[in-house]
């Protein structure tokens, strides 16, 4: 009604040209009391959400992806930078009396639980195909045979338990700050995990595979470190989940060590879950003495270091009392 009243007020003055039209518009707009504008501003987000829902409903008439790929639209008051959060209030944003809302269509989206199921179920079953030596992988005489070395069986058990743990965490433990991931990203991630799983499984379960140089001693020590790192990684994820559950979605706190000894690594690093993850894959590399596993560990370490540095920087910037002793991923070094 505000614009309707303004249009009617200008129309009664009968402007004769564009100059008078601008002049009368400014004059009538200056007569509008601020309280008159408060209502539309307060309801602005609600009306935006309604418009987006109508667009989504319109899209669903031609495709069924709307219900699967939700939250594919973000908005901002700046042409660049991070998008606005769901709890941002328009009056609190650094804008003047007028603001331009920039919408960005992120394309098809997939929920994070579905993302992890797709990423982790693939490696789990792909590795087992190589372990049981399914047809068309190795030579015909090696189909459904087994390796004589116990390290091959241990490696299969470790790899399987690792991804089962990840699936359990994805379903029951993790809490995600962002509801979805772009579909194109999940395709890239699946290719990465599935391809590496097939590559390292091919060599570890190959009929010509030879055990590590130092025999059972190398395997047993690496196995012990692997189990400890897996327990540590799970403990950190549970601690992070409890931190978010206690504080709520709007309460920002940085993690602290708990009574669980595996969480004491928080004294030294900001992201001990990545530290334990790298430790698990490094020990798996030593256990199998396999070059593809070592390469996968190295690439994972680079990526997790990037994530850890970003998280560490966010903690240091957001919390003034953040411990200075903590490093991103490696205690006292990196």
Automatic annotation (TrEMBL):
This is Trans-2,3-enoyl-CoA reductase-like 2a. GO terms for biological process: very long-chain fatty acid biosynthetic process. It is a multi-pass membrane protein. Residues 79-105 form the TECR-like N-terminal domain. The chain crosses the membrane at residues 110-132, 191-209, 221-240, 261-276, 282-307. One of its GO terms (molecular function) is nucleic acid binding. It comes from the Eukaryota. It holds the Pfam family Steroid_dh. Keywords: Endoplasmic reticulum, Membrane, Oxidoreductase, Transmembrane, Transmembrane helix. GO terms for cellular component: endoplasmic reticulum; membrane. Belongs to the steroid 5-alpha reductase family. It is found in: Endoplasmic reticulum; Membrane. Residues 180-333 form the 3-oxo-5-alpha-steroid 4-dehydrogenase C-terminal domain.
């Amino acid at each position: 009604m505000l614009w309707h009243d303004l249009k009617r007020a200008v129309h009664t003055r009968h402007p004769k040209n564009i100059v008078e039209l601008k002049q009368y518009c400014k004059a009538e707009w200056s007569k509008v009391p601020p309280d008159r504008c408060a209502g539309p501003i307060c309801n602005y987000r609600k009306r935006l959400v309604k418009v987006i829902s109508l667009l989504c409903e319109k899209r669903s008439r031609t495709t069924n992806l709307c219900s699967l790929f939700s939250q594919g639209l973000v908005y901002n008051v700046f042409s660049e930078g991070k998008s606005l959060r769901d709890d941002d209030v328009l009056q609190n944003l650094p804008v003047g009396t007028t603001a331009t809302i920039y919408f960005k269509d992120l394309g098809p989206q997939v929920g994070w639980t579905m993302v992890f199921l797709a990423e982790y179920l693939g490696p789990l079953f792909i590795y087992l195909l190589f372990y049981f030596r399914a047809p068309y992988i190795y030579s015909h005489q090696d189909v459904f045979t087994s390796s004589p070395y116990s390290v091959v069986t241990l490696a299969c058990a470790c790899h399987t338990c690792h991804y089962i743990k990840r699936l359990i965490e994805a379903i029951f433990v993790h809490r995600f700050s962002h509801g979805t991931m772009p579909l194109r990203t999940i395709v890239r991630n699946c290719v990465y995990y599935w391809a590496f799983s097939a590559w390292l499984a091919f060599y570890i379960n190959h009929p010509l595979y030879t055990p590590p140089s130092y025999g059972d001693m190398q395997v047993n020590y690496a196995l012990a470190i692997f189990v400890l790192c897996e327990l540590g990684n799970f403990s950190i994820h549970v601690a992070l989940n409890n931190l978010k559950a206690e504080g709520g979605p709007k309460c920002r706190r940085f993690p602290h060590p708990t009574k669980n000894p595996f969480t004491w690594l928080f004294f030294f690093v900001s992201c001990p879950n990545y530290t334990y993850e790298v430790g698990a894959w490094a020990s798996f590399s030593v256990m199998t003495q396999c070059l593809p596993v070592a390469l996968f560990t190295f690439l994972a370490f680079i990526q997790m270091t990037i994530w850890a540095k970003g998280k560490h920087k966010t903690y240091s910037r957001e919390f003034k009392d953040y411990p200075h002793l903590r490093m991103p991923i490696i205690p006292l070094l990196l």
